[in-house]
Amino acid sequence: LASEHYFGVEPNEWLLAEGIAQNVGADLVALRRPTFDHFDDFGLERFATPFDFVLAQSILSHTYADLTTTLLRHVRPALAEGGTLVATFQRRRTSRSSRFLPTPHAGSGWLYPGVVGYRWNELERLLADADLAGVILPFHHPRQTWFAAVPRAESERLGALRHAARHALAATTDAERVKRRLIAQARQLLQRRDQ
Fold first, then answer.
1. Backbone dihedral region for residue 82 (phi beyond 0: left; psi -120 to 50: alpha; all else: beta)
2. Percentage of the chain with pLDDT > 90?
3. Which terminus in the chain has less CB density within 10 A, N or C?
């Protein structure tokens, strides 16, 4: 992305400062000149710009249905034509491991550091209420599930988004395979040298 085209929301100002210091660095921030804000109501209209992409990684996993609805209702008008929300959620299945997750309607607001579990059909209903349509993406995440959402009037784009995600995943898998093969070859060469 070009400079000044990054926007971020982090309600905890100290956490943003720590993330920059520990993960990104001041030089990259100076180069890309992002705009950050610290509101906690998801009011993306404050940025006064339409977004091609909104990324919400590990947000919905900590919000009950009321706050998830607020987020989705703010995202929808903030999307540019052809814009996409890409997000993760904690998937609640019928397995024993997820039966202890609070359901979306078991509380309100934030649950942190706890996790709220959604079934996909529950999240689809919340998306529909916000005039969005979504599709699960086949991206790997160690604990959550990725999805993409677009305005309902543009729902025909969802198949292409899923296909692109699958293609990107295959390319990543191929690159990982090549990387593992090169590492194995390097180890073999080192072992031969040491013999």
1. left
2. 69
3. C
Return the pLDDT at 178: 65
Under a CB-based contact definition with an 8 Å cutoff, are residues 119 and 136 in contact? no
CA angle 107, 87, 71 (to 5 degrees): 50
Instruction: Identify which has the larger pLDDT, 191 or 124.
Output: 124
Is the per-residue pLDDT at 97 higher than 70?
Answer: no
Please list the residues that pair with 56 across neighbouring strands: 87
- Helix, strand, coil shares of the chain, percent, nearest 5, are 50, 20, 30
pTM comes to: 0.81
Give CA–CA dist 74/109, Å, rounded. Answer: 15
Quick one: tokens of 132?
Answer: 């969005």
| Long-range contact pairs involving 68-71 (C-beta distance under 8 Å, separation at least 24) | 68/104, 68/118, 68/123, 68/126, 69/126, 69/129, 69/130, 70/41, 70/42, 71/42
Question: Is the separation of the CB atoms in 148 and 157 below 8 Å?
Answer: no
On whether the CB atoms of residues 7 and 33 are closer than 8 A, the answer is no
Residue ranges in the chain assigned as alpha helix (H): 13-19, 26-32, 65-78, 120-129, 158-194
Ramachandran quadrant class, 101 (left: phi over 0; alpha: psi -120 to 50; beta: rest): beta
